Amino acid sequence: MKETTRKSGVDNVKILMVTIVLMVLLSGLSLSLDVIIGLDKLEAVKNALNPFRVMETVEMFILAFLVLLIFVDALVFWYNKHKKGTSK
């Protein structure tokens, strides 16, 4: 039978990296626009972090848990891949 390989860990890492790159670029754009309209850099950073200030504690735990799940899935995939590679 044909052996199928699990690629969800790799796909999750790719999705995570694209998400992080987009977040950094959009945050940079937001900070730049705030500075252009005349806000100082500290106020621009406060405006950029505002969505996280209004999150409740439970929402922060859920967000951290979801990010942790992505990393755990990637680490399990990596561990299984290297374990399989060393057993040959």
UniProtKB/TrEMBL annotation:
Top-rank taxon: Bacteria
Keywords: Membrane, Transmembrane, Transmembrane helix
InterPro entries xrefs: YczF
Residue spans crossing the bilayer: 12-37, 57-79
Record protein name field: Uncharacterized protein
Organism: Alteribacillus persepolensis
